């Protein structure tokens, strides 16, 4: 069963008739990708059905958004057709974008005083990879600080029961935000959910803050995950994806049985990638890793890489640029070469046509300022 088949089948049942489950968590996580900038101007509260009516006016023809935003719109519109979802209230919209950070969040009240807090993740461009690699040396990015402030601002002084979650980077924000929010908010958190999300630095993973939240944490990763196996994590539920390509990161390709994702086991390539990334993280200090990430992004720019799919075609040029680089140690160069080889194996069956018109140019995003970000949507600064 696909996500859309699940919406159609389970959408006939209210949350009282069928309790919220991990598939609903994934759906709500994806809703934060949708563009709400022209809908929310302040403290408005709208049902999903009301938002979709406004969206239909904003996007009367083809939706030209990047892939994650576009899928968020499609899922939002499909959910609006069914009683389970159409009256869910979306509010507390936040979107912050500048040359340092991109952060988005919404609150979804699916039953009275029961709220799913959805943090926005990243799409399949390399800017998302850069942000994920930054996690290897910085436990608290600016996005993390916004996530913590969001939870404290909106949920300290009320009686809401919370589920905090997100897809990709959004799941990591949900986890760290739940670890560091104040005690009044933390007591209200019933579940923390990550959908193929990066983990934590080893020091954070072994911390008391993670220890007190980990039993509430549920992490779903597809069997050929690339993003969700990054860094340290626990409570992973490996599930079956219907594709072996890069699109496995998208929840639309996760197989469903009844009211849960079909369980599976992690494939050897994902295990190998996990091992190589941890090796790189553990062998370098923070300064080396920061220099490495910046230098690696510059190398991709010089090689004219616009997506992960370009790695295969341009591998030899990328490797040459890596070994010509003065910003990487010989040890780091070898690790990067190994990582690229594994990534190419992971995506060997992916065709460019699958992502045509879906992945925006990396360099527009990597050098994004406010004007570039506003082409996607207007910045809303809470």
Briefly, what is this?
By secondary structure, the protein is of the alpha/beta class.
Question: Can you describe this structure?
Answer:
The protein has 382 residues and is an alpha/beta fold. It folds into two domains: 3-267, Rossmann fold; 273-366, no CATH class. The protein contains 18 helices and ten strands.
What's the topology here?
Elements: H1 3-10, H2 22-31, E1 46-47, H3 48-58, H4 67-79, H5 83-86, E2 89-97, E3 102-111, E4 114-119, H6 126-134, H7 142-155, E5 161-167, H8 169-180, H9 183-186, E6 189-195, H10 202-205, H11 208-211, E7 217-222, E8 236-239, E9 256-257, E10 260-261, H12 268-283, H13 286-302, H14 310-313, H15 315-324, H16 330-346, H17 362-366, H18 370-376
Parallel strand pairs: 4-5, 5-6, 6-7, 7-8
Antiparallel strand pairs: 1-2, 2-3, 3-4, 9-10
Helix pairs in contact: 3-4, 6-13, 7-8, 12-16, 15-16
CATH architecture of the largest domain: 3-Layer(aba) Sandwich
Number of helices: 18
The ordered string of helix (H) and strand (E) elements is: HHEHHHEEEHHEHHEHHEEEEHHHHHHH
Report the C-alpha radius of gyration, rounded: 20 Å
Which word captures the global form?
Answer: globular
Strand content: 5-15%
| CATH fold descriptor of the largest domain | Rossmann fold
Question: How much is the average pLDDT?
Answer: 79
Strand order of the largest sheet: 1-2-3-4-5-6-7-8
Termini separation: 39 Å
Structural class: alpha/beta
Share of helix, binned: 40-55%
CATH class of the largest domain: Alpha Beta
Query: How many domains make up the 3D coordinates?
Result: 2
User: How many strand units?
Assistant: 10
Largest sheet: 8 strands, mixed
């Amino acid at each position: 069963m696909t996500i859309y088949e699940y919406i159609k089948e389970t959408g006939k049942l209210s949350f009282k008739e069928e309790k919220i489950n991990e598939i609903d968590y994934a759906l709500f996580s994806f809703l934060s990708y949708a563009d709400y900038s022209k809908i929310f101007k302040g403290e408005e509260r709208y049902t999903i059905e009301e938002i979709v009516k406004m969206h239909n006016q904003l996007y009367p023809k083809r939706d030209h958004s990047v892939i994650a935003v576009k899928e968020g719109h499609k899922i939002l519109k499909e959910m609006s057709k069914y009683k389970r979802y159409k009256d869910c209230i979306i509010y507390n919209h936040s979107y912050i974008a500048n040359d340092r950070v991109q952060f988005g969040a919404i609150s979804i009240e699916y039953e009275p005083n029961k709220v799913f807090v959805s943090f926005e993740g990243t799409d399949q461009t390399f800017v998302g990879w850069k942000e994920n690699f930054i996690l290897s040396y910085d436990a608290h990015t600016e996005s993390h600080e916004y996530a913590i402030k969001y939870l404290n601002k909106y949920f300290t002084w009320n009686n809401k029961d919370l589920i905090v979650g997100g897809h990709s980077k959004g799941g990591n924000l949900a986890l760290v935000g739940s670890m560091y929010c104040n005690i009044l908010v933390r007591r209200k958190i019933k579940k923390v959910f990550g959908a193929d999300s990066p983990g934590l630095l080893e020091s954070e993973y072994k911390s008391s803050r993670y220890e007190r939240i980990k039993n509430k944490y549920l992490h779903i990763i597809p069997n050929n995950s690339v993003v969700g196996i990054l860094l340290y994590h626990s409570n992973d539920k490996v599930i079956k994806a219907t594709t072996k390509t890069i699109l496995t990161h998208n929840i639309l390709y996760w197989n469903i049985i009844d009211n849960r994702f079909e369980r599976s086991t992690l494939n050897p390539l994902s295990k190998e990638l996990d091992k190589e990334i941890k090796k790189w993280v553990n062998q370098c200090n923070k300064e080396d890793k920061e220099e490495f990430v910046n230098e690696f992004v510059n190398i991709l720019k010089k090689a004219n890489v616009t997506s992960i799919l370009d790695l295969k075609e341009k591998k030899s040029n990328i490797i040459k640029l890596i070994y010509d680089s003065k910003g990487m140690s010989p040890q780091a160069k070898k690790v990067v070469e190994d990582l690229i080889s594994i990534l190419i194996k992971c995506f060997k069956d992916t065709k460019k046509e699958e992502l045509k018109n879906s992945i925006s140019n990396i360099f527009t995003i990597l050098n994004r300022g406010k004007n570039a970000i506003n082409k996607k949507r207007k910045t809303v600064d809470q």
